[in-house]
Structure formats: C-alpha cells, structure tokens
Specification:
seven-stranded mixed β-sheet; about 50% helix; alpha+beta; four-stranded antiparallel β-sheet; about 575 residues
C-alpha cells in the first residue's frame, strides 16, 4: 500500500530574526514523523517559507504547533515587508504528495482551520480546495486589504472569516488571521530583470498572469477603466493560465523581478512561463537575466524544462537525469543569484533522504569489482548479470546519442533521441536490479536467523524461506526480460546508427546475451530450492525460452555489425 504523505508549506511573517524563525521550526520538528525539507527566509519580504512533510496526522499536528508558536513570537503590529500578508501565519496549505487525494487534504485543512480558531482564537479563512465559497478559492480574496483591513472585515458578514469571527481584539491585533487550504503543488518563482523599475516589472506581470489587467478606454494606460453592465471591471486576460504574478523591486539584489505563483503546472509548465516572461520582457525592452525558485520544486518541472530546451536545440533527450536537470538550470538561469543545488531544492531528492545502506550502483567501477571479488557471497552472478545488461543498454544509448548529434544527420535527431530515451529507461531498470538481486539473496540469509525452537517457529520459517526463494528466482527472471529489451535497441543502432560506432552496438548485443544467460543460471539455481515444483518448472521453462531467443537475436545483430565493418 502506498504510504500516505502530505506536504505543508506555511508562510510565516518573519524573515529577518533567525531566533524567531528557529522557535517556529523547532515547534514543527518536535512532532514525531515530520521532516522539514526547507526553510527559506526572505529579508526584503520579511517572510519565511517552511516546507515539511509526513503522514497526514503528524503534518496537521505540526502545522497547528507552528501556528501556535508563530502567534506567540510574532507581533503583526510591528510587521513590515514587501509581500502581502494577513497574519503571523499568513497562509498554510496542505498538499497531497502520495497515498492521499486533494479532496482528503481539503477536509484536513477545514478541520485544522476550525481547531486554530477554537483553540488559539485566531480567525481563519479557507481557500483553494478547502474553500466554502467559489470566491474564496482565490487567496487574494481571502487576504484582501491584508492585515490592516482586519478590523473592518471582521465587522462585515460578507468578509468575515470562516472560523473565529468576532470583534477585533488584542489577540487578533497581535496574531492577525490565517488562511488555511489545500492545493496542488505550487511553484513559487521570481524572474530576474535587468531593470530596477517596479512599474515595468508589474507591466510584464500583468501581461502574463491569468487574471491580466483592467481594460481602459482607448487602450491607454491612463484611460478610464471599463466596466460591464453590472459595474464589474472588464479584464484583459494574460497569456498564462494557472498563474498569479506581480512586479516588485528587491533591494537585496538591486533588481526588479516578476514574482509568480504557478498554481497549475499542467496548464503552464515552468519552462513555458519562463519563455513567455522572456518574450514579454523583450517586447518592453527588458531582458530576463535568470530565475529564482522560492522553496522547493517538483523534479518533473525541471525534467520537463530540460527536455524542452534540449529539443529546441535539436539535441537528444536520452541522457541522464542529472544532465537534463543541469540543462534546465543553465537554460533558465536558476543559478543567477546564488548556486542552485538540485539536492537541496528538488522535493523528490529531499524525500529520498540518506541511503539506508550501501548501494552497489554507487560504487566506482573498481569498487564494484573489488566488492565482487571479496569473500562475501553477494554481489554475485545475479547482480553481475544485471550490470552486464545495463552496460548493453548503455552502449545502445551511446550510439543513439552519437547519431543524434552527427553532422549531416540533423533531420534525424528526434528519431535517435527516441531510441536514446528508451535505452535510458532500460538501463535504469537493470541498474535497479543490480541491487535488487543482492537484496533478494539477503532475504534468504535473513530467514536463517529466524527462530526454529517450536513447531510454529518452524512453519513460519519454512513459509518465509519459500517466499524468499521464490522472490530470489523471480528477480533474475526480471533481469532476463529487461535485458531482452536491449536487442531491439542495439539492432536498430547497428542498422541505422552512426556507422563509426557499429562495433559498440555489437558489444551491446554481446553484453545483453551474457546478461540473459547469466541471469538464467541464477533462475535455475534458486528455483531448485522451491518446494512448489510446478512453479519452479514454470519459471525455469520461461527462462530457457528467453535464452534461446537471446542467442538468436545476438546472432542477428552481430551479422549486421560484421557486414557494416566489412
């Protein structure tokens, strides 16, 4: 069952006093099962964005404690900053990461908002998916007038909070209000301009944000704002769906920025927003010099961007994940203001945490060989077979990438890029199986440590051994099937790829055949330990059929290679 994980990204109205910030984050970290991924203070905005994750119940409790501590250490009567805000904890969204729906997060958010209002006496609004009315889905509607407007808003039933409505008092004066909600992942991004003009940055923001700008008579900047028959301002929509943006000047950097929230990555991916802001800036005589991501970013956003910019250059996208992300960083200038470390900014990498044990694929080539040669029985033939298959896929991918970049073959770059992408997927699966095979062996070793004093112990031990042995048989069979996918790749490269690299395609076929045959030996030796002989015979029969097919495919590829060499 998929683990239930929720992300919470509260924005606290303090970005300068580290002592205050640390008190808030300490309250959050005190909840067991919660991990803080990022703390991003901003001096100019006087605001800190905290990102933490965990199981839903733990995240909700940590969020409550963070709000409580913020209300104790932040006095909104003294707060000044460049960013809109309504309270000590300004906005608090819950975001589904895995095993939980957006609708479930919305229910959690409403319950949390109610608890904050009842136990802390802090008025709360519910926004996005947790909103009780369509208008309040928009954060700007909930935060209208900011902190200074709270006395009047509390007296008006139409603008009163969803929970905790009452006359303005000392508690509200100090803590303000809080906006609690549930939303999909939001990318907070600032586009750096070669300008100090807030007015021009705002103009670009109005050009692109979904809401756009008010329409005026004659299309001029000073003309009268146009209204519809109901007296509502007529808006000229911007060019980017699912975005909100404003322009501001950041004294810390000495530049103006277009500050944007991308609330719908499917409608407007990060790279699309970057290109469009660049286009609108250029039309106004400005340049985008780089991009600043506030908080964290999903890996998907950078991978999509990297592939997009590679394709614009007619370059293969069948390269490593690290190289694709590096392309995204350089193309959008993510390191313009400070170094951009994906391991500190990409949420999936932070969720990985530290490896729980040594992985074979993290070793050097020499280290892998030395580890194999040691007196330990693992890694053994199964892991070596998987690695040979990965090398076969790597060679096919290499030929595809060389072909995509070959002079005179520019019109075929996409054809070879597709081959390279497929090769990367095969290689990734086989590299995973390198460690998986050793893990399967270790499962068998773990069974030997189980107690066998009672009859019940013996039954449990026997069942565990059968299960572990079956798994140890299935893993090399998976290696065989994955290695079989190498043959179509290297055959295509031998036939159509760069002729100078045809021998590499041949070696790829040899490696794939060796991987299949080696893994087959592991299937057979592990299947011999199964008590379910029918299952054992089935698995061995499937493995032997793959060996026959692998030998045939290897011969086909080698024949092509020999003909090309001649």
């Amino acid at each position: 069952m998929e683990k239930r994980i929720v992300e919470c990204v509260p924005n606290f109205s303090e970005g300068r006093d580290k002592t205050v910030i640390n008190q808030i984050t300490s309250a959050i970290e005190a909840v067991s099962g919660v991990k803080i991924l990022d703390v991003d203070p901003g001096e100019a905005t006087n605001r800190t964005v905290v990102t933490f994750v965990g199981e839903p119940e733990a995240v909700v409790e940590a969020a409550f404690r963070g709000v409580k501590r913020a209300s104790e250490v932040i006095d909104m009567r003294k707060h000044k900053g460049a960013h809109p805000r309504i309270g000590a904890t300004d906005v608090l969204p819950l975001i589904p990461i895995s095993g939980i729906t957006l609708e479930e997060c919305a229910e959690l958010a409403r319950a949390l908002a109610k608890r904050i209002a009842e136990e802390l006496q802090i008025p709360t609004y519910c926004y996005e998916e947790a909103a009780f009315t369509p208008a309040r889905r928009n954060l700007a509607v909930c935060r209208a007038g900011e902190y200074e407007a709270l006395p009047a808003k509390l007296e008006n039933p139409e603008s009163a909070p969803d929970f905790g409505a009452r006359p303005y008092d000392e508690i509200i004066a100090r803590a303000g209000a809080t906006v609690v909600g549930a939303r999909d992942f939001l990318i907070a991004v600032n586009f750096n301009l070669n300008s100090t003009s807030t007015r021009r940055a705002n103009a670009i923001a109005f050009d692109v944000r979904e809401k756009g700008r008010p329409m005026r008579e004659g299309g001029t900047l000073t003309g009268k704002i146009l209204k519809d028959e109901n007296g509502k301002t007529i808006m000229q929509p911007g060019t980017l769906k699912g975005t909100k943006a404003i322009g501001w000047y950041i004294e810390e950097y000495g530049i103006a920025q277009v500050s944007m929230n991308i609330t719908n990555m499917s409608a407007t991916p990060l790279h699309v927003a970057f290109d469009e802001v660049c286009r609108k800036a250029d039309a106004r005589g400005l340049r985008v010099t780089g991009t600043e991501i506030v908080g964290l970013v999903p890996k998907r956003a950078l991978m999509e961007a990297g592939r997009y910019f590679l394709k614009k250059q007619q370059r293969s996208v069948g390269i490593s994940e690290e190289e694709i992300i590096r392309m995204a960083i350089k193309s959008m200038g993510l390191d313009d203001l400070r170094p951009f470390n994906p391991r500190e900014k990409v949420i999936e990498y932070l969720l990985e945490g530290e490896p729980t044990g040594k992985r074979l694929i993290d070793l050097t080539c020499k280290g892998f060989a030395v580890e194999t040669a040691s007196e330990s029985p693992a890694p053994g033939g199964g892991s070596i077979s998987a690695y040979m298959g990965a090398l076969g896929a790597a060679l096919g991918t290499m030929v595809a990438n060389l072909s995509a970049h070959k002079r005179g073959w520019d019109d075929r770059w996409e054809e070879f890029s597709d081959h390279a992408e497929r090769g990367q997927r095969i290689m990734a699966e086989l590299l995973h199986l390198v460690d998986e095979d050793t893990a399967a062996f270790n499962r068998i070793m773990d069974v030997f440590a189980m107690p066998k004093k009672t009859d019940a112990d013996k039954v449990a031990r026997d069942e565990a051994m059968e299960s572990a042995t079956l798994y140890a048989t299935e893993v090399p069979l998976r290696t065989m099937k994955a290695s079989m996918e190498v043959f179509p790749l290297v055959k295509a490269m031998a036939e159509e790829g760069n002729p100078n690299s045809v021998s590499d395609a041949g070696v790829g076929a040899l490696a794939a055949r060796s991987a299949v045959m080696g893994a087959c030996l592991n299937v057979k030796i592990n299947a011999a330990g199964l008590k379910d002989r029918a299952k054992a015979d089935e698995l061995v029969g499937e493995a032997e059929a793959l060996v026959v097919e692998a030998r045939k495919l290897e011969e086909e590829v080698l024949h092509i290679v020999e003909q090309k060499i001649k």
